[in-house]
Amino acid sequence: MKRALLRNGLLKNSRGLSGVIASIFIMLVIVLIYFNVFIYVLNRYTSYQEIVSSVSQDELERLYERLTVSDVNYTVEEGIVYVEGTVRNEGTLPVQLVVLWLLDSTINEYGYNDTISISLKPNESFQFGGSKALKVALEDASSNHNFSAWFVTSRGNLVPFQQTSRIIVANLAQGIGAVAMDFSSFRYYLTENMDEPIFSFTVPAREKTVFAVYLTNLDPTHEVINLTGYSCIWARPPYSSESQYWPITKVENGTIEDFDYLLLEYGKPTLVYFGPNKADRLAGDVTAVSILLHGKIGSSDYGQNIPFISIYFSP
């Protein structure tokens, strides 16, 4: 049999055929490897292009954010800075504010609030003041310190607040006397919870309350004003002879203390407390409220009646 195969040349040709088949197999393996490498590179390139496109779109949107913050006011109470103002989306894209940063430049300390979530559509405004004031804990802050603040958006932009001078704002009231008040800072407390200010002009008549408002000494001579215990808040409705008053008082660390005197330094906003008292006889009435101040400017007598706000005493 072997001799027959040799005569026909088949055995010799089968060896050559094996070499051809091996070569073809190797070529197929090489082609398959190159094909897999090509597919891998193509996928990586596609992924890279998608990432670049996404980053470019995010960067473009970030550049198109336009926001302004105005009417800024800072008040401080027991280590908490209350930040008030108005933010407006001037751009063409929706914006979300996620962090508020605050710098007390007087003592060079920072604080932040990362629990905020303010969403603004194009040309939409949001006013954060009164009960909606944003809070930042800053232990050593004081009302006479200098502050600056900025928002951080979800796209990573910083939105600085426009600077507002509280002294210049208060000067608008200079015509009525040496002391001006910050109307927006008015708040009251229920005596059983002196740690929680309530920013409202509707007050429960049958609850013991303490009123508080920031007063600023703007005396042209820059003298210190010493307020005495005759100072008070007085409320009276327009159609009745009934009235009620809340005497000036002191509050330290959430505790009402006996009043002796209170010094108002020039240009320094000071939170002044009045009370406690109830307003049972004024239940269901809207009242005109005045601040009656008495004391000394330097060595001279001082007295002032500040037309203040109106309060509705709910039954």
**Rounded Rg:** 37 Å
* CATH topology-level name of the largest domain: Immunoglobulin-like
Shape: elongated
Q: Unreliable stretches, pLDDT < 50, 5 or more residues?
A: 164-175
The CATH superfamily of the largest domain appears as ApaG domain
Largest sheet: 13 strands, mixed
Tally of discrete structural domains: 3
The tally of strands reads: 22
Helix content: 10-25%
Instruction: Supply the number of helical segments.
Output: 3
Span of the ends, CA to CA: 123 Å
The level 1 CATH classification of the largest domain is Mainly Beta
Mean pLDDT: 83
Briefly note the structural class of the backbone.
alpha+beta
CATH architecture term of the largest domain: Sandwich
Order of helices and strands: HHEEEEEEEEEHEEEEEEEEEEEEE
Percentage of residues in DSSP E strands: 35-45%
How would you describe what is shown here?
By secondary structure, the chain is an alpha+beta fold. It has three domains: 2-63; 67-164, Immunoglobulin-like (Sandwich); 167-314, ApaG domain (Immunoglobulin-like, Sandwich), CATH 2.60.40.1470. Helices cover 21% and strands 44% of the residues. It contains three helices and 22 strands. The chain has helices spanning 2-8, 10-63, 166-171, and strands at 67-77, 80-89, 95-104, 109-113, 118-120, 125-128, 134-137, 147-153, 158-160, 179-181, 187-190, 193-198, 202-204, 209-217, 225-227, 232-236, 244-252, 255-257, 262-264, 270-277, 286-297, 300-314. A hairpin with a 2-residue loop joins strand 1 (67-77) and strand 2 (80-89). The protein is elongated and about 120 Å long. The N and C termini lie far apart (123 Å).
